Amino acid sequence: MNINKPSLGIVWLKRDLRLNDHEPLHSALKENRQVLLLYVFETIFAQDPHYSSRHFDFIKQSLLDLNKQLENYNTEVLISQGRVINIFEEINETYNINKLYSHQETGLDITFTRDKSVKKWCSSESISWKEFNQQGVFRRMTNRKKWLSKWTELMNKTQFSISESPNSFLPKNKIESLSKFLVTPSLETKTFPKIQVGGSTQAHRYMNSFFEKRHYNYQKHISKPDLARKSCSRLSPYLAYGNLSMRELLQRTEEEKEKGNSSRGLQAFESRLRWQAHFIQKFEMECSMEFVSVNKGYHNLAKPINKEHIEAWKKGLTGVPMVDAAMRCLAATGYLNFRMRALVVSFFVHQLWQPWQAASAHLAREFLDFEPGIHFPQLQMQAGETGINTLRIYNPVKNGLEHDPLGVFTKSWVPEIVSLPDSLVHTPWAITPFEEAMYNFYPGKNYPKPIVNLEDSRKQASDILWNKQKEPLVNQECKRILRRHTLSNRKRIQ
Ligand SMILES: Cc1cc2nc3c(=O)[nH]c(=O)nc-3n(C[C@H](O)[C@H](O)[C@H](O)COP(=O)(O)OP(=O)(O)OC[C@H]3O[C@@H](n4cnc5c(N)ncnc54)[C@H](O)[C@@H]3O)c2cc1C
């Protein structure tokens, strides 16, 4: 340590882009005379197929929002790009990094590998790295016996504020001097008019409008592809990038329930908030799920890649209107409600008989709220490859008729079928030659014929997967997964 250099505490921001309820920031301000907030657009993400410009734009918007809030403290986030250790090294030239503060991250293998390198670098420089738990996901757990009580304890804690010692922030002029030695990315964002904008300010807007009004029809609309977009909270990207802490959201939900606000809907909402950490905990304890199914009995399932089918699915050109509408909507807006997510995955893994791994990166790039700890376990659940969940093959026609009977959602994303009557919206291939002329709609010309026979492909997938469930390795793995990953009250949370 060079005593001529001033000492500095660094808060390394990752998926926690907020000021409120930020324990690393709170602790850094308490323990250091000078604190720097740092965000690095890391090369590992720029090169990873799960991330796309919509994620980077969301992060940029979140950082601009943070900097606006930080104006009151005469500071800003130091924003750079490159390899995180190189940036720490550069800062360490001017300051003695005293401590590094961050939230724990349960992410892809690339972040796990990066964290191991950061740990090594910190110990070589005698810098201590304090990591905090923000989600209620615990490291080194071997089963779920104590998980729920530990999660509840964490979520009931008082929220952390920065009001106690806000004077310790490194001032703007010093941050500007540091930036000169670093690569600063442009914070300009593309215009995606239909995609949610990042930042805590937006997160609070969504949260307030949900509790004030939108939650009234939460349960009634949750499976409707169009109505769910308003009646669900739409908070997932804000939770994924930490614009809002789960603790703040849960505590607010409790307050709203106490006020007597539509408590059944809010009860259902609250259990889903718990599912977030429940799924991420699974991934934390079984991170190989990024690459292979949690149940080893399914590793030998043969699903040959069909590139044409995959392309048609990605582009929303499968000839099945409900699937195509959902895929096109996802591409344009970055969001689908739960049922539509399950439906497009189900079509891919069952009806197209493609491995979930072949859908993974594309979907991750498209979902604005991509959260690895939910993404991989959900993909495997929908693919029927956990062995512990009931096999569900979503019927796109039945779902269309039930949840979009007038085709409002479907027609808005598949304009090719706009001339068709309600009775044909979800089965345009059933049109008669007489109707073809009447509606000026010709399957295979205006819009593709279905790329697979829905009934035959459903039966084929179902037969294989039901038989698979009888195999000894699948069953042996089932027992292991139940012991390791499920709660005693399994009826409520899977
Ligand atoms: C294949 C597939 C992939 C998914 N990938 C993601 C993902 O990357 N990120 C993500 O946040 N959600 C994911 N989900 C879960 C769910 O679809 C979304 O959380 C939800 O649709 C987000 O909308 P909302 O915020 O309006 O939800 P609300 O119904 O308002 O729920 C509030 C919050 O609860 C949590 N939540 C809700 N449902 C679930 C669930 N089934 N599992 C875990 N947490 C849940 C989320 O944090 C959500 O933001 C996935 C589901 C499927 C089927």
Write up this protein.
This protein is α/β, with parallel strands linked by helices and 494 residues long. The chain folds into three domains: 126 residues, HUPs (Rossmann fold), CATH 3.40.50; 86 residues, Serine Threonine Protein Phosphatase 5, Tetratricopeptide repeat (Alpha Horseshoe); 189 residues, DNA Cyclobutane Dipyrimidine Photolyase, subunit A, domain 3. 50% of the residues lie in helices and 7% in strands. The chain is built from 24 helices and five strands. The protein has a five-stranded parallel sheet with strand order 3-2-1-4-5, with helices on both faces. α5 links the parallel β4 and β5. α12 packs antiparallel against α13. The longest helix is centred in the middle third of the chain and has 23 residues. The protein is globular. The chain starts with 6 loop residues before the first strand and ends in a 9-residue tail after the last helix. The relative contact order is 0.11. Bound molecules: flavin-adenine dinucleotide. Flavin-adenine dinucleotide binds next to α11, α13, α16 and α18.
Summarize it.
With 494 residues, this protein is an alpha/beta fold.
